[in-house]
UniProtKB/TrEMBL annotation:
Organism (species): Streptomyces himastatinicus ATCC 53653
Assigned GO CC terms: membrane
Official protein name in the record: histidine kinase
Record flagged with keyword Protease: no
This enzyme's EC code(s): 2.7.13.3
UniProt catalytic activity: ATP + protein L-histidine = ADP + protein N-phospho-L-histidine
Record domain Histidine kinase/HSP90-like ATPase: where: 358-450
Keywords of this entry: ATP-binding, Kinase, Membrane, Nucleotide-binding, Phosphoprotein, Transferase, Transmembrane, Transmembrane helix, Two-component regulatory system
Signal sequence bounds: none
Transmembrane segments annotated in the record for this chain: 67-87, 93-112, 119-138, 144-164, 171-189, 195-214
Domain of life: Bacteria
Cytoplasm found in the keyword field: no
Length: 458
């Protein structure tokens, strides 16, 4: 098929950013738009919400979840006999038919707890049928028509259940059908009613509006709670990643020191060891070049891990030797702190730098937590080593907080409390035990191995 030049050069809806649906309704005529909206409302009346969750099913207390069932049973028990008696005495309907109409108008309230839209269809048809049945009543002009008082009461409770469950479009459709049916009955039979159709139309609009507002408010609160839960989980995950990145930046200095030692030893080997063959000198040169290249790659890695706000640290990394100074700073901050260093710790000699740094940071985080959460609490710090030199044990115990406030401990390098301790212990393959004490204090116990796990296995 040939296309004209104008058709060929006309931009498509997808190219212009306009969806096909919007393009098809942009120039829609008023009657077509009315038909489309009417069809949408009709589909809403025949499409109940899924799943059929009972009203107040999300309530925290069990008795609240049973309230809709109790209200439905009480209304049914009251409205069925009242409706049957009213239709029999005031409208002259036979007892059997009056009871049947009363059951059709009231018993669907039990179904409304889980399926209010289906219950509405039954009640609506029963109310219309009742209005048609009482048309033959003598002196109808002085009676309530087309909706009787028991029917209005049951209908309003049904609309409340409907508003708490169905979307806004369905509520609008139900309200329009309610008003339209009353208007159609009044115009078709030309009876002098007392305006119960207008009363029901107004009251149903109010009930649907209030119920729909309550449902939407509950939906918004539920979504906010879900978002807060997601945000809290994301915040915890971000804290963990930040702590790991901070630990990696600190370990950069440890690894860089070892790589620098390797580079210096490899470069100076031909001068320190005489009579090396050319192949050995070349091998040492290759080792030194590889070590220098590794150092350069580690500097690039550190640049990736360092955030925009983080500046390069030029001070040496602390260790167990700086723990006494840390305890003194804690005492100056108003925390009575005792330090116990076992004699076996001094006999250990030089510790692995990763373990030495992790031990200091764990003590630092524990003391910072005491200042934040238990100001003025008496604290004891104990550092000991295993007899065989295989591990280092840290114990920080504080009592309940004192009455008077304490000055916060300002130290550089503090991380994220228990999260940082867990990550540092995991880094060196140790174990951590934390928890509250019966008297209101807190205990932190960490064990850091001094022998690598691979060496243990060998």
């Amino acid at each position: 098929m040939r296309r004209t030049y104008a058709e060929a050069t006309m931009p498509s809806p997808s190219f212009t950013g306009i969806s096909p649906g919007a393009a098809s309704t942009a120039h829609e005529s008023l009657p077509a738009a009315a038909r489309r909206q009417a069809g949408s409302l009709a589909r809403a009346l025949t499409t109940p919400s899924y799943p059929a969750t009972p009203l107040l099913a999300g309530a925290s207390r069990p008795w609240r979840r049973k309230v809709p069932y109790a209200v439905a049973m009480i209304l049914t028990a009251i409205l069925v006999p009242v409706t049957a008696q009213l239709l029999t005495n005031d409208y002259g309907v036979s007892g059997g038919l009056a009871t049947l109409l009363g059951l059709a108008q009231a018993t669907p309230l039990l179904l409304a707890v889980t399926r209010p839209l289906q219950a509405w269809w039954i009640v609506f048809l029963a109310d219309v049928t009742t209005a048609l049945v009482v048309l033959g009543t003598s002196d109808l002009q002085h009676r309530v028509w087309p909706w009787q008082p028991p029917a209005i009461i049951g209908y309003l409770f049904l609309l409340l259940a409907l508003a708490l469950r169905e979307p806004r479009r369905t509520l609008v459709a139900v309200w329009l059908v309610t008003g339209g049916s009353g208007l159609a009955l009044g115009m078709a039979f030309q009876t002098k009613s007392d305006g119960s159709n207008v009363l029901l139309f107004v009251l149903s609009g109010v009930v649907l509006l209030v119920g729909g507002a309550l449902r939407e408010r509950g939906d918004v609160q539920r979504r906010l709670a879900e978002q807060e839960t997601i945000s809290e989980a994301e915040r915890a995950h971000r804290t963990l990643l930040e702590e790991r990145a901070r630990i990696a930046r600190e370990l950069h200095d440890v690894v860089a020191h070892h790589m620098s030692v390797i580079t210096v030893q490899a470069d100076s080997a031909p001068y320190r060891i005489g009579g090396l063959p050319p192949e050995a000198e070349q091998e040492f040169g290759t080792i030194a070049a590889t070590a220098r290249e590794s150092l350069a790659e580690m500097r690039r890695l550190l640049g990736v891990l360092r955030s925009e706000e983080t500046r390069g640290e030029r001070t040496p990394q602390p260790g167990l030797r700086q723990v006494p100074q840390l305890v003194e700073a804690t005492v100056r901050a108003g925390i009575p702190t005792e330090l116990s260093l076992g004699d076996e710790v001094a006999d250990l000699g030089a510790l692995p730098q990763a373990v030495d740094l992790s031990a200091y940071r764990i003590v630092q985080e524990a003391l910072a937590n005491v200042v934040r959460h238990a100001p003025g609490a008496a604290t004891r710090v104990a550092v000991s080593a295993a007899e065989d030199g295989s591990g280092l044990t840290l114990l920080i115990v504080n009592g309940p907080p004192a009455e008077g406030p304490a000055t916060p401990l300002e130290t550089s390098g503090t991380g994220h409390g228990l999260v940082g301790m867990v990550e540092r212990v995991r880094l060196v393959g140790g174990s951590l035990d934390t928890g509250p004490l019966p008297d209101g204090g807190f205990r932190v116990a960490a064990r850091l191995p001094l022998v690598d796990l691979e060496e243990k296995g060998s």
